[in-house]
């Protein structure tokens, strides 16, 4: 059977369709450049709130609203709420519907339990490091220990809290165990929150705590494991 004129036209049209270039898909939309800025603002607000908690500016038992805190820090209420929700997840503040956030604060028992857990993690880690690291490696931590002394000397609680975390974080990083570092720092942050019905530490107390860092480094550099273990445990538990 001879092909009809219609069949030939259909065949030519199909060939033309197959030969036509496939149009390119439009590129995916670029993520807005403002996103990192928003994350940066939230991180800055979170850091500022942590400092305010450590210094006692945000007091245990007191309630604070996101709009009021936002005005204080010169930002919108959204990053403040996000930061407060993060702190609520850590148990540092409590969410009060339609009111804001209340600083939880620790009881003396909470603080003792946190100290016990921190000691159970950090003291064995320090001793393992003491058996394997050359003495000069401990000197890498000396500037961090001295930073805690500097902050304590001027009574800057927020700066001391940050320097204190930095010293312990970098010490534990020497283990190479990033999970240990993360868990220990989370516990450390919680332990730095104010205790209910207890005055904030003064300059003398901060300085005594800071000097324990340098004493610990001295013992570790000297290879005195007995003294290092005692100092590390006393530093973490206060006993």
Concise synopsis of the structure shown:
This protein has 239 residues and is mainly alpha-helical. The protein has helices at 5-19, 34-55, 66-73, 77-89, 108-132, 142-153, 157-173, 178-191, 203-221, 225-237, and strands spanning 63-64, 93-96, 100-103. It has two domains: 37-103, Winged helix-like DNA-binding domain superfamily/Winged helix DNA-binding domain (Arc Repressor Mutant, subunit A); 108-237, Up-down Bundle (Four Helix Bundle (Hemerythrin (Met), subunit A)).
Descriptive terms for the model:
single chain; 239 residues; mainly alpha; Arc Repressor Mutant, subunit A; Four Helix Bundle (Hemerythrin (Met), subunit A); 2 domains; three-stranded antiparallel β-sheet; 10 helices; elongated
